[in-house]
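INTERNAL AUDIT FORM
Audit reference: QA-55
Scope: verify that the stored structure record matches its stored sequence.
Auditor: D.O.
Record contents follow.
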Amino acid sequence: MTYYKVPAALDQKRIINPKKKIWNDFRLIENELYTEGECKQRGIRKEWLEKVTIKKTKTYWFFGARFCE
């Protein structure tokens, strides 16, 4: 499956999505994985992230964020 990985340079970068009224402010976490739909929903530009292909079974959730094993 195709994911978008947050690089180290964008760790703790603040994202503000003006289209959302609730949860419009959050920070990126280094090595967190996002799907294409999540990027669109949260207002994250895919050009900022690294495109990676990882099996769904090789990912895990930790404190509400998806990471690769």
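Auditor finding: record pair retrieved intact. The longest helix spans residues 36-42.
Action required: none
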